[in-house]
């Protein structure tokens, strides 16, 4: 198995373990918002290896940007657990993330 995914966790890049016959799913910001932060979106990057072949399959899904309002599902909000994300359109969320990029550690392509 060829390690190919790193996650930024506790201030450093960690390589995800390769588990035979498995799928790693990054649920992204949408699930983090819908779950009111129960499922976390993480900064991640892919690794490239000059000597060994690996297979990655990236699939991106997004709702209609101007029509879809992202906010925590009502089932995830309680008096003791108020909403952690303000309602905003998908387009507003993407713009917010772009604005935050300046403060986050940069992603890079690594060749191992």
UniProtKB/TrEMBL annotation:
It holds the Pfam family 2OG-FeII_Oxy. InterPro entries: IPNS-like_FE2OG_OXY (IPR044861), IPNS-like_sf (IPR027443), Iron_ascorbate_oxido_reductase (IPR050231). Residues 2-63 form the Isopenicillin N synthase-like Fe(2+) 2OG dioxygenase domain. Transmembrane segments: none annotated. It comes from Dipteronia sinensis. This is Isopenicillin N synthase-like Fe(2+) 2OG dioxygenase domain-containing protein. SUPFAM superfamilies: Clavaminate synthase-like (SSF51197).
């Amino acid at each position: 198995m060829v390690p190919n995914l790193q996650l930024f966790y506790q201030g450093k890049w960690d390589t995800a373990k390769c588990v035979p016959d498995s799928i790693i799913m990054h649920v992204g910001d949408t699930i983090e918002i819908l779950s009111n932060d129960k499922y976390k979106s993480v900064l991640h990057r892919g690794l490239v290896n000059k000597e060994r072949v690996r297979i990655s399959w990236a699939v991106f899904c997004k709702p209609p940007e101007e029509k879809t309002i992202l906010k925590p599902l009502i089932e995830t909000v309680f008096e003791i657990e108020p909403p952690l994300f303000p309602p905003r359109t998908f387009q507003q969320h993407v713009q917010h993330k772009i604005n935050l990029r300046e403060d986050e550690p940069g992603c890079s392509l690594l060749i191992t």
